Amino acid sequence: MASEPFYVAIITPVIHYCMGGLEIDVNSNVVGPRGAIKGLYAAGEVAGGVHGNNRLGGNSLLDCVVFGRLSGTNAAKYMLGADAKPTDLMALSGGGLTGEVTASKMAGGSYEDDMNKSGGGGGAKKSGGAKKSGGGGGYTMAEVAKHTTETDVWVVLHGRVLNVSSFIKEHPGGVLAIMTFAGKDASEEFDMIHPPDVIEKYAPDAVIGMLGEGGGDDADGAPAAGGGVAAPLLAKKGHKAWNDFDTASRRERLKGNGKVNGWIGAICYMVIAFMKEVLMTIIPQKNLTFSNDRLGLTRSAIFLFIFMIIHAIGNLHVFLGPDDFNGYGYFYVRLYFTGFGLPANIVELYVLLAVCLHVSVALKRTWDISINMPVSSGKMNLAFSGVALLSFMIIHLYQFRFGNTEPYLLRPPAYLVNFEGILTLNLFWTWDTSIQPVPVRDIYRLEFEIFKNMYWVWFYMGAIGVFCTHMCLGWQKVVGAPSMDIPKRYQSKATHIGYVMTAFIACIYFSFPIYTHLCGMKTGALGVTG
Q: I need a labelling partner for 89 at 20 to 30 A (CA). Which of 29, 182, 253, 408 fits?
């Protein structure tokens, strides 16, 4: 940065500088009838009372720069309090600036195009991509530091290497905001002013790999062997997962429609993304790493949503009667041998681990990123709905998983599933009189007894509404995630498909409390009513 162009402001002919506006004090605080207004700052032409009756030539630019920095500094202190960190232009620019203005345009317009050229005799030179290095564990900071020009600029955010060369001109905060951290790790400063999903939403293709110990891959900016945009959250550093790939053809495909067109294509890519992310929670993981990366949050959320679908379909057995519903519950009890000696099966244990991962990562990201944001910003909506859902899950488990029930006599199939009853959907019990009936938990009667109380009907329906809200808010963030591999032009369709899926699953869950509240219990095969 010390030898690169550094633009303080664009100087161009104007009619005049407006010196009237909101009155401000020495801290750039807007002054009202009762004194300084907390949290309201102004600088530049919108502010007044700085120069008196007149001003010296050139003071307008000085006014903008000085009070611009004062307003920014004091606004940060107001929002962050003790967490606000002091900044220093000398440190941010890497030790100071060199260069001078050498030219001017006489016929109007600006002359910033040739400002502050470095002594090396040229503007920014395109450095191309990273050169190969034999490492293979991701990009090094030394490699990132080579890319510090406006036409070739890389930055690091939470271990991810971003090539923002094509995005820099579109950055709402201007070119300088990015160039200040060109070739550096900007994670801390980035988190202070950006929401957590801004990269996935606005510049997903900027991520070219992960920060590691090895080198880059090739000249077009592909990531090294050990990193990549789809690298798993829990993968060991330097470990190459089976899905860890990033090629030019893949990047080009993700920019467009992909290889399958229309809504069918959107559905196909969604299904592939769902299955891949669920498998990624199991197959490639080697160790546990806590970070602000959202991959663990995304993958655990997708796994839990898949479980919600399976659970909803399983609970449809309540409409078939006590044998089917109690047999469905007993099916999971018969899988206890997979629970490593615990009174649970491997499915329940895995769901528990997924919930713990999802909650822990969500709490960490909320604490690190959103905790200081006002409620009105909406940044805490996922956190609030998530806490409400967690409370509901605890109550639900207490009532149904650990609730007291009467024994119900059932003839379970010999091989976990009644293959003879597949066509009639009698999957978890049999008519075979040679099989001795066994007592099982009567969760069928338990559900009817709980939902006799209208309070619990409304409570569960409200919880389903919270689930829909949480799912839709989260799905908006998930669709654009690079790890999902959903092409850009499909992301809007995928978002709406997710909403439809959520509404469909919600309708299934709504039906259970309504049905058991309004209808009576059926009689089982052995003549027992629930």
A: 29
